[in-house]
Amino acid sequence: MRQERYGVLMVNLGTPEAPTSQAVKRYLAEFLSDRRVVDTPRILWWPLLRGVILPLRSPRVAKLYKSIWMEQGSPLMVFCRRQQAALAAVLPDAQVELAMSYGSPSLPAALERLLGAGITKLVILPLYPQYSSSTSASIWDAVARILAGYRSLPSISFIRDYAEHPAYIAALAQSVRRSFAEHGEPDRLVISFHGIPVRYAREGDDYPLRCEDTRSALVAALDLPPEKVMMTFQSRFGRDPWLSPATDLTLKGLPAQGIKHIQLICPGFSSDCLETLEEIKQQNREIFTHAGGETFHYIPALNDEPVHIDLFRQLVSEQLR
Fold this sequence. Notes:
Rossmann fold, four-stranded parallel sheet, 8 strands, about 15% strand, Ferrochelatase_N, metal-binding, cytoplasm
């Protein structure tokens, strides 16, 4: 009888290897070449990407990365490696690998290690709580392309998302309560998700619905009045209309409404990264305070908190039953 060997593949977006223009340019070139991320016809997109966006954007983004870079490296990579090690510790019977959709550690290399070890059951865990075609589906596409080159495949479970999982909501609620206990209850709790183009949602991406599912479950767990909570979308890119209301524009208008104390959480990010540490914690704090806001607190991502690792353990274990 064949002995079962388990593998877990954790996948996040990726990060430049260094806070330099050249490293950022390599990373952005790969990221923005994914048709799931930008579906503009290549004949129009390639000249714009190569001739305008990469030369202009890479130096600016490199400066932003420098402002958050940790001694051990990019925050996203640091926290993802910690998550990988912690999950491996609580799943001793499974080989746990980490991969990034763009950059390194690469998906092909991680899958090669897993299949080379002879695993018979593989659980793919995209580190995106809310499904989107531009994130989770992109991982599915990439894995399918890579596995097309292998003769023998394991059985595969793909965790689409976990937007309403009780352990996920409980972990978020714990973070919010801890922040309230430390800083007092704010005038508003702002729940900010990464945005996507409105067109993607019209064409069938249920990401906005999954964000709403998370918001609704978290508000219920916290037992907060609905009027004390706001859901917004951040990180707009390009000229297409994106999901609204926009986080930065919302924060700019709140002080004029008498809302001077906010706390903000980004439940769509499993690890702190450029979009949380620089865009939210730095840029959006400045936007709010310059508009007359008095108290702004960013509630960190779940990162390698024990409750977060236990959530991952539960998600994987549910697939291996």
